[in-house]
Amino acid sequence: MLYISRWIWCLGVLAIxxxxxxxxxxxxxxxxxxxxxxxxPMDVLTYVDISHPATASGQLSVAAFIWxxxxxxxxxxxxxxxxxxxxxxxxTRIGLIAERGPYDVMTATQTVALSPPIPVIQGDFIGxxxxxxxxxxxxxxxxxxxxxxxxxxxxxxxxxxxINLPEFAFVVAVELLAxxxxxxxxxxxxxxxxxxxxxxxxxxxxxxxxxxxxxGTGRMTGHLVFHPAFAQAGAEDPSISYTLGPWEVQTIxxxxxxVGQSGIGSVDIVPVTTDLGPTVxxxxxxxxxxxxxxxxxxxxxxxxxxxxxxxxxxxxxxxxNIGVRTLAAGATLTFVLFDANGAGSSSVTRNYPPNxxxxxxxxxxxxxxxxxxxxxxxxxGASAIVYGVMADNLSGNATxxxxxxxx
Length: 407
Known about the structure:
This protein is 2% helix and 51% strand. It has 407 residues and is mostly beta strands. The protein folds into 3 domains: 2-179, no CATH class; 189-299, Sandwich (Hypothetical Protein Tm1070, Chain: A), CATH 2.60.290; 302-405, TM1070-like (Hypothetical Protein Tm1070, Chain: A, Sandwich), CATH 2.60.290.11. The strands form 6 sheets. An 8-stranded mixed sheet has the order 1-12-7-6-9-4-11-2, with no helix packed on it. Strands 15, 16, 17, 19, 20, 21, 22 and 23 form an 8-stranded antiparallel sheet that branches. It has a 5-stranded antiparallel sheet with strand order 18-28-25-30-31. The longest helix is centred in the middle third of the chain and has 4 residues, at 255-258.
């Protein structure tokens, strides 16, 4: 059947990361909160997210979506579609391969089990059908982030072909995400460093995190995944799960202790039920000395080709360490050391593997070079979070600085 369908279209570049069968898989997106209403709330319609296909081959076991009202009984179905050649570049053809439901919607943000799990291959699409006049699927206008959703009439059961012309565009994305259930498909925020380790003068440093659900409806779930230093992130890295009710705040007083670890590493915040994840405040602290609040970094914002770190004003009493956390592509970084007068004194280029973390003294980074007062470091390269930590040898107090992009 051919539909002159309305496309719900957000401008952006479609990218499907390569992944092997059996890896974590996600399909769809849940940018939250919704800010666009359905066009025909009384009609039975199926919405298919064309721009966020399955990231890998595997099995989908859980889905989350945002509904416009609750409670609504037997209101929604979750469907998976696979694309096939249409023979015409102006047409898109998809066929239903599985569906689950109907589901009762009891909260605005509803999480449901896909039972039995749905096998998918990389590139499959996720869809949702509103079956009743009690609430509808919801949408968010997200501009350049990139989303294309097809709006199809009825409870689609077979193959459909629709026209994909720009005049049917509407800039919104459907609020729908399905995953393999392990929540480790991708981080939305990174805590560059977390620590549970002794310092000078008998101090023992720990990492406290406070998590807040920024939404007033539904529950938010996900994982905090710890990646030890001097190693690539792996599927078996330890993690702790979180679940937060509307506006709820929870505190983990000793994050590494909670995951049974010590030492130093970095932490990924990986949501299951929303793309945004919780609001997080992290603090590195010790009982005997002052600590510091550590900012989180969004991987999507790590793209500056040149950044700067400024060193201590008294290099004789302050230890200066440099941390590097790479993303999925790895990174090649060049570090250039400048003295207080702006003269370059040393340079080193290093290649880092994907999803790797280390923290080393500045002197080690530059092969034993002398670091004077008011030195600075220029970092050239992208796809990595670079930071500096300065610890006072007398007071034990520490400060934290993420490298800032050069103007």
